[in-house]
Amino acid sequence: MLEALFRPQSVAVVGASQDRSKIGNIILRNIIASGYRGKLYPINPRAGEIEGLKAFPAVSALGKGAVDLAVVAVPAPSVLEVARDCGEAGVKALVVISAGFKETGKEGLEREKELVAICRQYGMRLLGPNCVGVMDTHTPLNASFAAGFPHRGEIAFISQSGAMLVAILDWSVREGIGFSQFVSMGNKADLDETDLIEAAARDPHTKVILCYLEDIREGQRFLEVAERVTREKPVVVLKSGVSEAGAKAASSHTGALAGSNIAYDAAFRQAGVIRVTTMRELFDLAVVFARQPVPRGRRVAVVTNAGGPGIVTADSVERQGLEMARFSRETAEELRSRLPREASIFNPVDVLGDARVDRFQVAIEKVLADENVDGVLVLTCPTAVSDPEGVAKVMAELHARFPHKPMLGVFMGGETMAGGVEVLNRAGIPCFTFPELAVGALAGLVRYGAIQARPPKEEVPAYPDVRPGEVRRILERARQERRRALLSSEGAAVASAYGIPVAPIKLAQRAAEAVTIAAEYGYPVVLKVASPDILHKTDIGGVRMGLKTPEEIRQAFWDVMESATRHFPRANLYGVEVQKMYPKGVELIVGMTRDLQFGPLLAFGLGGIYVNLLKDVAFRLSWGLGLREVEAMIRETKAYDLLRGFRGEKPCDLKAVVDVVGRVARLVTDFPEIVELDINPVFAYPEGAVAVDVKITIG
Amino acid sequence: MGKLYFVGAAGSGKTAVALGLALHLRDRGVAVRYFKPVGNPPGAAGTGGDRDASLMQAVLALPFSPEELAPLTLGNYYLSTYRDHQACRRLVEAAYAKVSDGAEALLIDGAARPWAMAALGLDAFSLAREWKATLVYVLRPVSDRSLDEALFLAGCAREMGVKVAGVIFNDVPRVLLAKADGLYREILADRGLETLGVIPHQVELSAPTVAEFYEVLGGEILTGEDKLGNVVEDVLVGAMTLESALAYFRRSANKVVITGGDRTEIALAALETDIAALILTGGIYPDMKVIVRAAEKGVPVILVHHDTYTVINRLAEVSRVIRPGDERAISLAKEVVAAHCALDRLVSLAIEAHEA
């Protein structure tokens, strides 16, 4: 897939120039310097020869099918004409370096739309516009204007920021980190992160896929593809724009509204994507994934020649969700017999400050051999007798003997460690200066192990008893009345049509009607003001509870109306809704907001008036959501502890709660026009659960 | 010739009712004319004279200029701009004589308030008494208190010797519909006033369009010039956190969102929802991405130099104006009068002269 982009048989550089300061010339020279072995054509209407190659006036002058990939670096107004020419000439992929598209305004937007239309018309794929270009070190091809070409390696890096890409490239060359592919996506007019992740997944030279993203263009497709890819190869994403300020910067950078950070978290988690928050982590993980095996479990052995750093490491291991391994008796006995009496033979293994290479050798070998150990961290501090290079060589030998267990080095120090670090680098053992980063990298490997081993995608429950026709009628009526917010009685009817048990509620437009409804339900009842414009009814005196007589109802009806108009003089009042009073259960909230990128984002947590204070909420996308995952979501919250029966209370009906969440997921999947939904509270009882207040907004 | 004088507060829908009735009169072969002694000045972006007069002139194809149909303009300093108060009065009377000449029914439209130009003796009640016009009070009720306004002013008019036919409730919110037709009607009847219509709230007739906002606020249209006809049903201020913005904006449709020009993310959130126009304040030219997104979605963006607070204050002046080319609103005005008013009664009031 995308062969023409990464492994073209022939490349044309449109806008190639004899002037060495021009982008077109730099790209041409980059392609030559990368050792590209296919055919290469400079395209320029005037020049006869550029960088020793014969130039052609247009791609079409080469004949149909002569060019697989065209790299375009001409001024924006000429790009459309070039694209048409390329299309006529049967070019398969375009990389448009030129800026002057959507990022510049309305005119640019129109130009970009047309560029995409031309590419679609001719079946060309398009990278960019407004990008740095594309590189593949195995082809090899450097079709970019970046300075330099990365070492050959197994990491694919896909970046939404061109500047980020060139900076990483420069850094990686010095660090000796190799890459398989480097892609700058630019405006993502056609090819986006999902296409490129899919391509990297199929690239035999790529082991790890790294992304720097500011937004995701097609959430659903991304989820589908990433869920599949992450079962084969790790995908690590640095998604920026997390903070309010960052989101602002990202939105002005890409022109897309950053979807909610919570939705991104849920999406990455459900698709098996590892999300990192710093660039350091991004590349630490990349290196570790490229060079070390995925461990079977989370038990870590630490071998050190210094007590303090060993303890710091042990702390970090626990904090980052790993475990300090407990050695078998045999291992402990071997270590006891072969290390000095003062050495600590329990984890962390302290071979002491006067240790030479032999003690490291014994300790590392024994812990690697222990079946209770899944991975090893080796710490060295500079001492009078330490021999970092010697330790590194031992590590290299042992890593070769135990290739299925990851081993990482922490060589704490500067100049004295350089030789050892060099040896480890050559042996493919990632080395860090401080323990936390090494533990973080190991934790990443462990996490990926769990991701890879996760059970296959769950079945989404079917719920054959749902009644979409009823829901459609209610939504249509609201739309006819030009309302976006449903009344509580309508919300309850919608939920009920999807099999969610609700506390009965009806609209009364006059006080007398309210009395009739109350008689039907039986006293006591609740009265709530009915208005799509009033969100927080309790706050404005719009709710009256525990009404026991017709007279109380009549009085409450007008009290509620007065209150409502006093607070919201222009609110559209429908009257009052009468609801049957239910006994209080464990108060839960089940909510949904439709994320712009990923669709329905469900929330579950502790309900009632403290929702905003306690923030005891777990989130999942409705995408691919099965009952196992719903239960996992519920278990994440403190509400779960309440449901299980806190301090001798009777446990609640967990199955009924799972059912409510599952049915809400189905409802919002069936009706894309439902953009917000909140059931607060849902009362959970030892038997069953009931939705008391259902708020729905339609788009 | 009969004369009906429509009086009511600004935005009560006097003109729409007069328009609807005028079309029915014309259908019945009555030579109907329209006259508005005291017109409105144009808004910040507007030019020309009174828009109601222009509308009626165009729809009824009246052989008079809008300046003849609405001879005076109610400026804030009208006592100074019309230095010669006697000339003022002569101007109105001349126009009135010319427009009413040969008419079988004359519909007179009131100013923004019935007492406008009382200093010159040109308030609605004085003129109605002088011209022996029958007064119809158009009331847009928002609560029980609104009824007081109609009762009190009708009482004043009678004290001054004006014949008052009754009240038309217009743009009635759902919750008051039953009440207007019941309790309000009874109270009016007790005072000898007829309920001549109860017209429910109609978004298409009462909601202003983006053009009306632009006329009041002025400013620069950055994109979406062709979408100024979008109907505006709600006004929201984008001053919340980004996190809550989307849910907030989603709750209302066909809205104008007012926010600072530098609040890129709020503007983008608003553009993801059903929006009629974006008004950016503070004179801060927005990020290019906002304009691009708005252009993609076909949403007008208006950049104004006032701050958000000032803009909100000025919104009180925005109300729906039916424009001559707005066939849908014009025919709706006619339908509504037939469906919800005592049409025959209004017609006979309009053509029968009286000697009050």
Provide an overview of this structure.
The complex is a heterodimer of chains A (699) and B (356). Chain A is 40% helix and 21% strand. Chain A has 699 residues and is of the alpha/beta class. Chain A folds into 4 domains: 3-288, Rossmann fold (3-Layer(aba) Sandwich); 294-435 and 446-452, Succinyl-CoA synthetase domains (Rossmann fold); 468-580, 2-Layer Sandwich (Dna Ligase, domain 1); 586-698, ATP-grasp fold, B domain (D-amino Acid Aminotransferase, Chain A, domain 1, 2-Layer Sandwich), CATH 3.30.470. In chain A, strands 9-8-11-10-12-13-14 form a 7-stranded mixed β-sheet, with helices on both faces. In chain A, helix 12 (329-338) packs antiparallel against helix 13. Chain A is flat. Chain B is of the alpha/beta class and 356 residues long. Chain B contains 16 helices and 13 strands. In chain B, helix 11 (242-250) runs parallel beside helix 12 (264-271). The relative contact order of chain B is 0.16. Chain A binds chain B through residues 102-106, 108-109, 244, 247-248, 251-252, 254-258, 260, 482, 484-485, 509-510, 532, 535, 561, 565, 569-570, 572-575, 593, 596, 675-676, 697, 699, and chain B through 142-143, 173-175, 178, 203, 223, 233, 241-243, 246-247, 250-254, 264-265, 268-269, 271-274, 287-289, 291-293, 295-296.
CATH superfamily of the largest domain in chain A: Succinyl-CoA synthetase domains
Based on the coordinates given, report the CATH architecture of the largest domain in chain B: 3-Layer(aba) Sandwich
What order do the strands of the largest sheet of chain A run in, or round the barrel if closed?
A: 9-8-11-10-12-13-14
Count of separate structural domains of chain B: 2
Give the CA-CA distance, first to last residue of chain A: 38 Å
Assembly category: heterodimer
Report the radius of gyration of chain B as a whole number of Å: 22 Å
User: Looking at CATH, which topology of the largest domain in chain B would you report?
Assistant: Rossmann fold
What is the β-strand count of chain B?
13
Helix content of chain A: 40-55%
Count of discrete structural domains of chain A: 4
Shape of chain A: flat
Indicate the low-confidence ranges of chain A by residue numbers: 250-258
By CATH, the topology of the largest domain in chain A is: Rossmann fold
- Tell me the major beta sheet of chain B: 6 strands, parallel
Q: Which CATH top level class of the largest domain in chain B fits?
A: Alpha Beta
CATH superfamily of the largest domain in chain B: P-loop containing nucleotide triphosphate hydrolases
Bin the strand percentage of chain B: 15-25%
Main sheet specs of chain A: 7 strands, mixed
Structural class of chain B comes to: alpha/beta
Strand coverage percent of chain A? 15-25%
